[in-house]
Design goal:
alpha+beta, three-stranded antiparallel beta sheet, 2 helices, globular
Length: about 70
Amino acid sequence: MKKQTKETVRVVIDYAWRNDMDMEIVSGEGENGTVEVYDGKPSVAAIMRRLSRERCGGDRWALIQAEDGYRG
């Protein structure tokens, strides 16, 4: 899965804010992933750090999305 860029993260933040939605972190290995509500600071830098931690430098993937599934 392709990593999200800072620009796509910014688009998701703006979309979620405009539509009064929560954001979710989706992470996993292969095709399977888990979803959890993101309750951290709504900044690009904070989200990019969180996504890096979720990936753990291995074969895992992680992304941010609005609660309706919008990913930029």
